[in-house]
Amino acid sequence: MDFKTPFVAAVSALGLMAGAAWAKDTVTYATQLEPPHLDPTGGAAQAIDNIVYLNIFEGLTRFTPDGAVVPLLAKSWEISEDGLTYTFHLNEGVTFHDGSTMDAEDVKFSLDRARAEDSTNAQKALFSAISDVKVVDPLTVEVTLSEPNGSLLFNLAWGDAVIVAPETVETLKTAPNGTGPYRFGEWVQGDRVELVRNPSYWGEIPALTGATIKFISDPTAAFAALMAEDIDAFDNFPAPENVVQFEADPRFQVLVGSTEGETILSTNNAQPPFNNPKVREAIAHAIDRSAIIDGAMFGYGTPIGTHFAPHNPAYVDLTAQSAYDPEKARALLAEAGLPDGFETTLHLPPPAYARRGGEIVAAQLAQVGITAQIINVEWAQWLETVFKGKNYGLSIVSHTEPMDIGIYARPGYYFQYDNPDLQGLMNRLNATTDPEQRTQMLQQAQTIIADDYVNGYLFQLAKLGVAKAGLKGIWVNAPTAAIEIGALSWDD
Asked: Does any domain span residue 195?
């Protein structure tokens, strides 16, 4: 009989453990939110992109960690002199994870599907300028616009614009099939998603052979998992009060950056009394941003007075326009015919910025006579009730999509703001390529929505990353929602 003595077995086990520690080639990355599904072309939740963007799915272009837009599936392109025709040249040898070839037909299908009348793409407006997509040959695609659009390459970098195969679109939500460096392995709902390195990847093969993306919604559990080293890193760590402990612990690195997340007190502009601009202005003056940033985020966050990222060169600081002034808030409510205030709902999704921030906001509103009934909801409920159903009064959410001020030009968007002047301005912006003119228009748009007090503008969400000291390649900033596993490696 073949057997090992306990001593030999123990030595062998120790050797295996040491070898595994020495040659670590996987990562366990945690995030707070579990996605509703895994199809970035069919859902608005940033939690989808966190898992699949640049890992499973890829687009013609992509965002880099510093926010630049660079080639990806398209290796190059030419733009016609009139700005109406983009000719994309695709990389050779790209295949989907099921082994089928990715070519110009797939690009045409994906863009046509995204812009179709019955499209369920959450960012369908990104593709509205496209009038035609033509296959020139298997590696060349010609995209024709109805008018020049200076944002097209930027728009094509979004997770909503990834390229998919026609034959697998019906199963993308549970069995995603992309062209990226990692294949979908397994989804244990309520716990984790497993990714496995794609050995047939067309680009540079990544260092790590696989990744586990764990879902840990509770801040206390997130802290405990990191301290016990059960996980290697946490994206957007949800317990800012514990960051100082990680900074003092040599086992960890703390990466503090910025995100594209404008955190707002979203307001249903079509629902009385929020359809009265004076009421919205009263709410703006009832809010003490500093108290929210300190109380909910322990000082991490930058105050904003409009829906635009402060790190963007076109940003206009309009915070003074909605400065904390409860007396002015009460006076505005009286002018609006509501001297005794009113009652409304405040829907709060799971993130700490919303749940903790919501308690503070509700208390501040109560000081001026507005009673906000807090309704804690999971993301699926928020998407159904608030985002799709528009059945809410107020909500707190961070809009993490890059350069998304264009949502204010969509009357059907969930906060239901309808301003033809802004819509015309955004149409002109989309047709403008001159950088200086675009900056002026963006600044004008920021001012319009601040003047109309469309939403309560709270703060720009900070990106708080905590990871083991030896993990390299982590995005410090978040120009879009992404955990790019292919960029990660371990120190030798």
From this structure: no
What's CA 484's distance to the chain center, in Å?
Answer: 13
Q: Residue 158: which CATH number? A: 3.90.76.10
Q: Which of 106, 136, 165 is a domain's end point? A: 165
Quick: pLDDT tens for 132-159. 999 999 999 999 999 888 889 999 999 9
**Structure token digits, residue 138:** 């298997």
CATH code for position 347: 3.10.105.10
In tens, the pLDDT along 311-358 reads: 888 999 999 999 999 999 999 999 999 999 999 999 999 988 999 999
Task: List the structure tokens of 180.
Answer: 């990226």
For residue range 401-432, list pLDDT tens digits in order.
888 999 999 999 999 999 999 999 998 998 88
Our count of domains for the chain comes to: 2
H helix or E strand, kind and range, residue 371: strand 370-376
Question: Is residue 11 assigned to a domain?
Answer: no
- Residue-wise pLDDT for 32-66, tens only, equals 989 999 999 998 888 999 999 999 999 999 999 98
Give, for 346, the enclosing helix (H) or strand (E).
strand 342-348
- Amino acid symbol at 299: G
Instruction: Name the residue range of residue 134's domain.
Output: 68-165
* pTM for the whole structure: 0.83
Burial class (CB in 10 A: 0-12, 13-18, 19+), 239: buried
Which of 146, 50, 167, 55 minimizes the C-alpha distance to 100? 167
Residue 132 lies in a domain: yes
Say if 170 falls within a structural domain.
no
